[in-house]
């Protein structure tokens, strides 16, 4: 894995794209993005895997937040009631 700053990326982006390693782009020393090699045949699968990983990370965050607020103990009927209530208010 290679770490490059935004400045380094702008200065040498063409040569970085030849790398077969993942490149972590940093902004002020903190990770801001990732460049990863992809072959044309696996592009869609790679993009799908990245999106699934992002979705799982977000779901874990939502679960942790719900647990911290005690919302993980709600019954399904209570959840459905809240959803119906919200939808009714949104239509008005």
Provide tags for this entry.
92 residues, three-stranded mixed β-sheet, 3 helices, 3 strands, elongated
Architecture overview:
The chain has 92 residues and is of the alpha+beta class. Helix content is 58%, strand content 16%. The chain has three helices and three strands; from the N terminus they run βαββαα. It has helices at 6-16, 43-68, 76-91; strands at residues 2-5, 23-27, 30-35. A three-stranded mixed sheet has the order 1-2-3. Strand 1 (2-5), helix 1 (6-16) and strand 2 (23-27) form a beta-alpha-beta unit. The radius of gyration is 21 Å and the shape is elongated. The protein starts with a strand and ends with a helix.
Proportion in β-strands: 15-25%
Radius of gyration (CA) equals: 21 Å
Unreliable sequence segments? none
Number of helices: 3
Instruction: Summarize model confidence as the mean pLDDT.
Output: 88
Q: Structural class given helices, strands, pairing? A: alpha+beta
Helical content, roughly? 55-70%
Order of helices and strands: EHEEHH
Main sheet specs: 3 strands, mixed
Strand order of the largest sheet: 1-2-3
Termini Cα gap: 53 Å
Q: What best-fitting shape do the alpha-carbon axes yield?
A: elongated
Question: How many strand elements?
Answer: 3
